[in-house]
Design a protein that fits this description.
5-stranded antiparallel beta sheet, glutaminase activity (chains A, B, C, D), Beta-lactamase, acetylation (chains A, B, C, D), Glutaminase (chains A, B, C, D), two-stranded antiparallel sheet, EC 3.5.1.2 (chains A, B, C, D), alpha+beta, homotetramer
């Protein structure tokens, strides 16, 4: 396939929806972003890279970081991890707390905030420096040594982080947080603040397209673990729209409120699309549309 | 591929788990079933049929019926259907009622009981005879004119159906049930009581492998609608184990407490496996294992 | 005390709020009532009767009936009753269903609808005719042989009774309903439809002011049981405003959406006030105000 | 009445249940207490003091402190306080978080932990030193200048305080906490650690028996505010047993997991009873029994 041509065509097709949706506004650093931006990148498993639009512009990766911390912990803990966090979808957000109570402090999956906090907690225990290890990993996989945190965003997250603090303390009350809650929160807020471009992210998620092998060829995850991550992305990766995303796009994907979405075509490539305008469920309007167009044009969807 | 050889091998590999799990016991008619039984069938999109074990033995299809009623309503109502039922996973069963209240009587998806009741209600409105239309459809698609309801099972369901009655009345209070509740329940209990074999079901779900075309070639669903059904099966088809099933099997599937599971390999075949012993989440132990073996042997999983 | 004078003065003091609030509108029979009406009656433990305003006008007693069915069952079952229903307040109405699920089908108290359905169910089992026994009791206690059901209201309740049907089936699924659900519902809807005046109700609740003795002198409840009923009225008798009612009025009371409220001054009298305009929590605006005035004028409140 | 004689008799009557129940064990400092202890004190509105058993032994007042912080804030804020916390019972503890979410961070009443945290937060804002102001107040009202915090208990509370931290952060996310969460928690844990005897507490709650007047004659609360506090004690003061307590004791009361209970007889006296063994709902077994005996012997109950 001529990927560059495909990306060009996708850009043409999504032009009508560019600027639609609302930029995340719960922290000022995100609210200031120009909503009309759009970028998309594709990195093949062999290292080729294609892009279109603002594909070199760094943005706040936010919840996309959860994919990478999950992989880093799974690589070290293996199935023991699943004693502390589930692998199942979680229903509407209203129920997050009651569900956590009903299931005695075990979050439903690693992509809801409670689950991601457990993962960051565990990564801290395993490495002593969750955010540092994450940054090193992303620099290596993206091939971009300047990938870094945004301290303004991290500080903003901390200031508006009461709900995450509540979740962490709640789980700590059940014994499901190992480190002091303020430390866990700090690492978590920093990981969310990472600034990366579509190019960076498309490459960085390549290990999932390569069934667990890093860009260096070294194995991070077993084949089976890579399948676990992909399956969780498909069923839980796009907030309360996983069913809709599965139908329209049909690929394992993970979105963030910064407007980015990564998606995986196993054996072929990692994809990343970015546009800051979000729909009511927190996913990039133009991003979902672009991935929908891409899988329709290529026939590469799962179903 | 030599499908018969594959099925034979799968049977050998699942032998160690045959008889594991617990047979559904909430109604006597199900509790009496011999737990050691196992059958598996595969029907290609071109009409070839393969089977192994007890693949000709009829069993109670239970919730598998929800796939077919969904398709029959979607074919008639199109996207208007999604105003009355969602397409998203639902979290743990404890939350089903509070979720229904929070979302004003709109069930999360067509495969939880509340959603299936809405579908049956709608099929009644559209056809005047939900259960009759369903039986005709399944006879035609399976090529087996003797497919029929089991009146003993249907009566048993009705006798133990208080929770379904509660759900139906609850939704009726929100105006999301069109027909008298007792009528909806009656059709629902009958549809669950349908007795079919693996051979019947593997053929009957072929229209989803053929992107919406019936065995006659006639189109039931548009391509897009067939994708919708498959996506809902993948994300919501196996009760509270959809994430686990996605990872292990990686195919759109739907299970029933009778011990059956249907699964779809788009463009290739419909599959049905049956073994009555259930795991803690209500899915056939040997059934999930068999599908896991099958996709591992063939590499035909989604991820 | 000169009760007549007191009631006259209360009427003067509540005039400014007469007509405030909204008449219950979920069934047409209630929605048609003139909101400007107001009546209040006081029946002493020795049989004297005083009244003011529309105190002789019958209105729909609705949930006030729950006090009487509770007493009739408690008289027969004693403490065994508390195995099927609790005695504790229930929090906001949103939680009624999740609470019922969490507590395995045991309602929190006899005055939420779920609890009242259990009581009616039990009264049916004990007497064979819950509504008939209730009517006889109320005719005897009120001294008014024409107390009767309103078939239009009863039919209306049944037509809009899906939520009560859901509750009853839900509890039946837990084994906490003994009779067929439709029978229980029918008796329940009839009991809610009883039409009585302030005069009737002030006399009819006299047994609670007499620590359990009926108007005939015969004992219905033990002293201790009468205290139980009074305590439940104080803590759970006015929907989600029991705390507010306890502070403002400080008497055991029970309200209904028809706009009536009964209240008990132990050893002295039964009170009933009626005015159809309801506040946001379902209690009569002028009714609560009148009881507030009355206890302030007499200093007869609990606190 | 001969109060001393009454207390002596109550002690005789409760002897059979002394030592029953389980001492609170979530923090070591409480778990070490001898469960066989029992004390009871009565302080009349005129300053007379009576006592029996271990009535001079200090114990951890825990949640009884919530009565005093409520009064101190209500005295300063008046009805404005009710914008930040409700006055209604809250149902079973399982629902505390979902209720808080449903009601947008406004706790149901000042005696559940969430509500007490709001009160402490407000007292901090109003006085700059919530715990210090509370200690001064209790020293003055009890007439015991040595009333003080127990630093071991306070530290223990902090160590096991994740659930309270979760509640505070959760409400802070809704804007219903004004001060930094760690500060609020610190003051809260200190206030719970106050060590006082039955004699101290019986006197200290006298202002509620005097309709708001302090021991000095100075008015703390208006008559109406004192009624508000009493009403909340009656409907919400004994965890999930308020209905039971209202029936058995029939007085405004507040219990703590240290085994203490204060109760108010308006116009007459403040009562305090203490015995460390708790029932399943967290109230002192012998304490409730003693108050039950006392009101039965004196006929002073509400009902």
């Amino acid at each position: 396939m001529d990927y560059q041509e495909l990306l060009n065509q996708v850009l043409e097709e999504v032009r009508p929806v560019l600027g639609q949706g609302k930029v995340a506004s719960y922290i000022p650093a995100l609210a200031r972003v120009d909503p009309g931006q759009f970028g998309m990148a594709l990195a093949t498993v062999d290292g080729e890279l294609f892009g279109v639009g603002d594909w070199r512009t760094p943005f706040s990766i936010q919840s996309i970081s959860k994919v990478f911390t999950l992989a880093l912990v799974l690589a070290r803990d293996g199935d023991a991890l699943w004693r502390r966090v589930g692998k199942e979808p979680s229903g509407n957000p209203f129920n997050s707390l009651v569900q956590l109570e009903y299931e005695h402090g075990i979050p439903r999956n690693p992509f809801i905030n409670a689950g991601a906090l457990v993962i960051t907690d565990r990564l801290s225990s395993l490495t002593g420096d969750a955010r540092g290890v994450l940054r090193e990993f992303l620099r290596a996989e993206s091939g971009n040594p300047s990938v870094d945190f945004d301290p303004v965003v991290a500080a903003s997250e901390a200031e508006h982080g009461h709900r995450n603090a509540a979740l962490a303390h709640f789980m700590a009350g059940y014994g499901n947080i190992e480190n002091p809650v303020p430390n866990v929160l700090e690492h978590y807020f920093w990981q969310c603040s990472l600034a990366m471009s579509c190019a960076d992210l498309a490459r960085a998620c390549g290990f999932l397209a390569r069934h667990g092998r890093r860009v260096s060829g070294e194995r991070l995850l077993t084949r089976s673990q890579a399948k676990q991550v992909n399956a969780i992305m498909l069923t839980c990766g796009t907030y309360d729209a996983a069913g809709e995303f599965a139908y329209r796009v049909g690929l394992p994907g993970k979105s963030g409120v910064g407007g980015g979405i990564v998606a995986i075509i196993p054996n072929r490539c990692g994809l990343c699309v970015w546009s800051p305008g979000l729909d009511a469920r927190g996913n990039s309007v133009a991003g979902v549309e672009a991935l929908d167009r891409f899988t329709t044009l290529t026939g590469l969807s799962v179903f």
